[in-house]
Amino acid sequence: MVKFSKELEAQLIPEWKDTFVNYCLLKKQIKKIKNSRKPKPASHYPIAHHSDFGRSLFDPVRNLARTLSDKLFSTSEKPEILQVRRRKNSENGDDVEEIYQTELVQLFSEEDEVKVFFERLDEELNKVNLFHKSKETEFLGRGELLKKQLEILAELKQILSDRKKRNQSGSNSHRSYSSSARNSDFSAGSLGSPGELSETQSETSRTDEIIEALERNGVSFINSATRSKTKGGKPKMSLRVDIPDAVAGADGGGPRSIATATSALWEELVNNPRSGGGDFINRKKIQCAEKIIRSAYVELYKGLGLLKTYSSLNMIAFTKIMKKFDKVSGQHASSTYLKAVKRSQFISSDKVVRLMDEVESIFTKHFANNDRKKAMKFLKPHHHKDSHMVTFFVGLFTGCFISLFSIYIILAHLSGIFTSGAQVSYMETVYPVFSVFALLSLHMFMYGCNLFMWKNTRINYTFIFEFAPNTALRYRDAFLMGTTFMTAVVAAMVIHLILRAAGFSASQVDTIPGILLLIFICVLICPFDTFYRPTRFCFLRILRNIVCSPFYKVLMVDFFMADQLTSQIPLLRHIESTGCYFMAQSFKTHEYDTCKNGRIYRELAYLISFSPYFWRAMQCIRRWWDESNNDHLVNMGKYVSAMVAAGVRITYARENNNFWLIVVLMSSVVATLYQLYWDFVKDWGLLNPKSKNPWLRDNLILKNKNFYYLSIALNLVLRVAWIETVVRFRVSPVQSHLLDFLLASLEVIRRGHWNFYRVENEHLNNVGHFRAVKTVPLPFRDMDSDG
Known about the structure:
Strand content: under 5%
Strand order of the largest sheet: 1-2
Distance between the termini: 59 Å
Number of helices: 30
Helix content: 55-70%
Shape: globular
Radius of gyration: 36 Å
Low-confidence stretches: 43-53, 73-78, 184-197, 234-268, 273-281, 782-787
Number of strands: 6
């Protein structure tokens, strides 16, 4: 049977861990009470002489009769062993908090350990109540704000619907009016055409309709009184939206009363109702707002569910700990204390349950066409259970990979491809493509190890990366993808060697790597719902965001993936070689100078080596622009220094002289020190000299501190692998390629190792701020009055 402490540890919400009942601490205190009540050794006491020489067979009968008589004929109530009093505390300003304090009767008054136990128990109860009340208030305010947003959205949708009907009904009358206007004596240059006047009037009426709809929902406009118009009736200045205090403060962003609509949606609807194509653009923005509000309701429902789980787990913890106390003390104190717990705020309040029911009904009505089953799919997505079939295929493909790789080593040795003159042809045609798949599979394997470790250490990576829980990749799936890729690659390598040994022409056999790459691309972009389509499309979407970094808001998953690309520059260089090899049709002519010594190819080497660092630097600039945090500019300097070091190393590989050697050493040392500092201090949050864990940080996920010290040393060693480019200990072209592949693999391993501690640090930051659900930015958001 699993102990409750382990069960609680497995079920509690990681981000709220510090707010739960400290069950282990209370258990230790009960153990102290038990030890304090143990009788002293008998040798210290004189031997007592009893008149009874032994126990009688009728003793159990006498005890039972005595117990029944006490229950039947006793009329007096048993005195309370303890009293739990509730008092008001208004030290925190206007907020009045309920503080629970236990008073012990004479039975326990002389026992210090019991006093300490109930003092700590009261502290835990007050802590749970306080946190539950704060979260309940936050979620209730969020619910009120979402209802107000939904009302405004419904009004605007109705306006667009009415406008569409009027436009359709008034189109014929407008044509007849235009034809009569051509026969009139008025000049178009003097007073303006009637068509222009009607358009201005209709635009003004549309603006007034939207303003009235917003004002009916409690939204006022700051500068509406001073808003002047042109001669044609069009406004000269834009309106700004003012949301009342009760609505603006409900978002948890403080008591600021000034709120404006996002420029992409609400104010443009008010100020420019015909911009960008009229109704179509406005309708698209309304649909965008509806999607945002729907996501906000999903997150609200998730938060309410977590708070409900929080209450139930804490209630169970209090019940378990009081039963343990009764067992140790031999008294029945649990009933009295648990009555007080059940009357406390986190158990007695039903606001969370009622709000959950309200959210279900609102979501069913507005976002699921009154289909409750469809609504619950959004609100309570089903988590796919780990399938044993996935584990079976992981083992199967792992065995196939090992067997095929052994066959490949034997065939390569027998055919002498690494010793004969054919080695140049083989390494130039086969090595780049197969290296791409090998590095990709290794990276996938490391990501699977990350998922496994994050899951076991209860790091909420799906929340950090904002993955959908029902489609997020699990570690078994990552291992399956990696083993499948490697099995396919090694099988293609074996087939390639067999066909070469069978006497097939080199131009035919050397197309196998290209066919394999083409199959992989087709699987990646396959539109059918198979082969992990949500994961594939998410990967493509993230790549798009990375390439277009300055034009998309940067999320955690975006810059996390961009960091992965900075460790896969050799893979990108191999893709360049493969693309050039097949586009230049070198597999037919076997002339490799086009791709190795061509000017365009050599210039592209700089571009490809710079691109990951450039994208990451652009993300830092965008984050600085959005968040106004100068740390992002300092982080950008790290990638600029890495970009310079990468370019200098390429130049040194082509122009081997002392000048470029000195430049390589200087640029690489600066970039490495910059990267190491950022790895340890910023990304991992380590090297804190004031931490209670020497040179680490105060909060650690792993219990053994030595893992962190070893990880620091390992990251340091792998970061200086660039020294090989300076030493240049190579013997033959084959060994040179193999050494490059080994160094690229070590960098992938370093990145996988870095990933765990980076996400761990992010998780601990969320824990410090109790962030367990996303705060979706609504169409109305709090802003300063100066905007």
